[in-house]
Amino acid sequence: MKWLLNLVAVNSLITVVIYPMITLGVDKPMNWLVEIGSLVVGLGALYLLIRYRKEF
After folding, report:
1. Cα(19)–Cα(47) distance, rounded to whole angstroms?
2. Concatenated DSSP letters for 1-56?
3. CA atoms 34, 37, 35, 15: torsion sign
4. Tens digits of per-residue pLDDT, 39-56?
5. How many other CB atoms are there within 10 angstroms of residue 9's CB atom?
6. Is 24 exposed, middle or buried (0-12, 13-18, 19+ CB in 10 A)?
7. In the chain, how many domains are there?
8. pTM for the complete prediction?
9. How far apart are CA 2 and CA 13, in angstroms?
10. CA–CA distances in Å: residue 49 to residues 11, 13, 26, 37
11. Average pLDDT in the 14-39 region?
12. Which of 12, 34, 46, 52 is 20 to 30 Å apart from 23, CA to CA?
C-alpha cells in the first residue's frame, strides 16, 4: 500500500509541474480540471502517507 501511495503522490505532483509546460509548448490550451485534479490527488496521497506513516 505504501508503494502505491508513493507512486500516486510523486506522479501526480510531478504532473502538476510538467503538464502546463507541455501544453504551452505545443500551443494547446491548458485544461484546469486536469491540473486541479492532479494536485488534489497528489496532496491527498501525500497526506495519507504522512498521517499513516507508522502503520505502513
Report:
1. 22
2. -HHHHHHHHHHHHHHHHHHHHHHHHTT----HHHHHHHHHHHHHHHHHHHHTTTT-
3. negative
4. 999 999 999 999 988 876
5. 20
6. exposed
7. 1
8. 0.85
9. 16
10. 14, 14, 35, 18
11. 94
12. 46
Alpha carbon distance, N-terminus to C-terminus of the chain: 7
Average pLDDT over residues 16-44: 94
The range of the structural domain enclosing residue 19 comes to 1-55
| Residue matched to cell numbers 509548448 | 25
Query: What are the cell numbers at 19?
Result: 503538464
pLDDT score for 56: 66
